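Let us work through a complete example step by step.
Step 1: write down the sequence.
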Amino acid sequence: MICVSIGRGRHRHVIAEHNHLVQQGAPLVELRLDYINGAVNIKRLLTDRPGPVVITCRRERDGGKYVGSEEERMLLLRQAIVEGADYVDLEDDIAGGVPRYGKTKRVVSLHDFRSTPNNLPEIHARLASLDADVVKISTLAHHPHDNVRMLEMIAASKQPTVGICMGDIGTPSRLLAAKFGAAFTYATFHHERALAPGQLSFQQMKDIYGYDRINRETEVFGVIGDPIGHSYSPLVHNAAFRHLGMNRVYIPFRVPAADLPEFLADVPRWGLRGLSVTIPHKEAIMRRLTKIDGAVKTVGAANTIVMTDGALIGYNSDYRAAMESLEEALGGIRNDTSPLAGKTLLVLGAGGAARAVAFGAKRRGAHLVIAGRTAARAEQLATAVGGRAVDWSSRHGVDADVLVNCTPIGMHPNVDDTPFDEYYLRPSMVVFDTVYNPESTLLVKDARERSCRVVTGVDMFVRQAAIQFQHFTGQPAPTTVMRDALRRAIDPVKQP
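Step 2: predict the structure and record it as tokens.
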């Protein structure tokens, strides 16, 4: 279950948020007394409460805001017990000085904002010995492996346990807590009001990840990269899993480049079944794979990994999605001949997406021209694919049939930027912008005004995600569901 933390300065705001959360289905709420301004009225907070609560009053050294005396803080916690709080959170150094009373359950906790100690089982045993009903350990994650150690500690415990790795590297520990048997996990009232590093909102935990449906049998998928917080992949894949009633969850893993080998070695311990791969791992991960398909060999990058019988099998869904998107815009394949054959493609950019487009189009008989803001990278890609490179300043002089933007120019929040001047767009051109947030970039708007045929980044993103979904599950993806989920996220105002 999810325990939602409320940290507000006024009693009436705490009470209002508590009532709202219970109406939204929150099974447990943490009331952070250290956030309340002035004197705390415990009785007011607990009388006629709409649901169970954990009372917490955290000191600054434990990540809280309480600045009063320790004697006054202890008095508040004892008052909460006397008033019948469902749970009271007691740090390990004070738990021995607060006796059990009534029906209030004791959460004995430890917080480490520097690291995740190597001796988690020993720490757990010590906390459990302090008359704990629930043991809570919250530490800072520096490596993805810290999550594995935390989750395995939870799974091995006979005592109800909450184990959390803080920070964005620690997000998996929050989302997979139920799979490993945690008593509960923590969320915040709103994603902009996190009370601990890396904390997700109740809405995100419930609506995006379906935390209340995760159990020991849930199959785990995810996306690895660094950074990873911006990714919309969890949104679309989880929407598809939910639509088809699958007991699966897809979560983000922030994996720094140096941690990739250890992360892949931990795959069986995570229980991972499939991964999407993004920057900076698409090329480096190839050395770690058991088997790769033809597209990966062609492009030199993998963005999809499937775990089968201990093997790591790599695919590249960007390649296929880009080619299908372009061929559809050009009228489709006829007599086994790609409509890209003989066309001149101007590719803007020289990164991973550009490689997928360039190699795919070249194999289909297109003439490739690469224009990158970094001339050396454009030259390198042009040489590898058998095309030619032009200076970024010369891109408008290319007589292109197809223009593909593989740069981030025009991406939110820089929505007034475009990589190509509208004056040089012709009605006969196909314009493909791989940027998907927003879907209607300035380039896309200009192209439509010039009557060009347009492929948007949403088309590409959903198509590649659908290909990944089929690799992961062996079933066709519900593309309409995935597209709607993405569009609601990037432009909620336009959605019904």
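Step 3: interpret the result. The radius of gyration is 26 Å.
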